[in-house]
Amino acid sequence: MKDTFAQFIRLGLIMLGLAAVLYWADSAWMAPRRLPPCVQEKLPQHRICPETVLSRYGDKIIWIDARSAADFELNHLMLSENRMFPIRKGVDMQQQIDAAIGRLLEARERGECVVVFCTNDCSSAEEIAAELRSLGMIEAPIYTLEGGWDALKVRNLLRG
After folding, report:
1. Where are the alpha helices (DSSP H) in the chain?
2. What is the largest CA-CA distance in the chain?
3. How far apart are CA 18 and CA 2, in angstroms?
4. Which are the contacts of 27, defined by CB distance < 8 A and separation ≥ 6?
5. Tell me: the pLDDT tens digits for 47-88?
6. What's domain 40-154's superfamily in CATH?
7. Which of 88, 60, 91, 59 is CA-nearest to residue 72?
8. Among 101, 103, 56, which Cα is nearest to 79's?
9. Which among 92, 108, 96, 105 has a CA at the least distance from the CA of 65?
């Protein structure tokens, strides 16, 4: 009986050790790559979860990429029909807005929305979305994507 109890304790300790190792491995390698769940109701006005924008608008989204030029050149959304425009803060920002404005003005009548994104830790998307709203000419909803570029990567929305 003592041998059975000792084996049971030993097996329990081995399983506990294995669980601790798996927990540590998940925390160290997997958790940093996971995005927290996005809850639309908890977001401020004009921010939108990827799932929400996709369920509401499907492919009727005009994407504004506010990431740096280097990040854009490294990897970006490959979309047809003038549905993706890079607009960055800085000297060329007004020229970039001018290049996209015709398409942005058509968005409402096409049932589209405008979604601005950058990397998860950058404020450029918020600033560019606010700038587009301040123009007062774009009638389509203008959102900032919660989770930014990382949310697009995780949800396999990238082609290119």
Report:
1. 2-25, 50-57, 69-74, 93-106, 124-134, 148-154
2. 83
3. 24
4. none
5. 999 989 989 998 899 999 998 877 877 777 666 667 889 899
6. Rhodanese-like domain (3.40.250.10)
7. 88
8. 103
9. 96
Collect all residues with Cβ–Cβ distance below 8 Å to 68 and sequence separation of at least 6: 88
Burial class (CB in 10 A: 0-12, 13-18, 19+), 67: buried
Tokens 């047809």 identify what position? Answer: 80
Q: Cα angle at 77 between 56 and 65, to 5 degrees?
A: 80
Name the residue with tokens 């050149």: 73
Q: Are 59 and 157 in contact (CB under 8 A)?
A: no
Residues 82 and 112 sit within 8 Å (Cβ to Cβ):
no
The kind and range of the H/E element at 123 are: none
CA proximity to 147, closest of 130, 131, 125:
125
What pTM value is reported for the model? Answer: 0.75
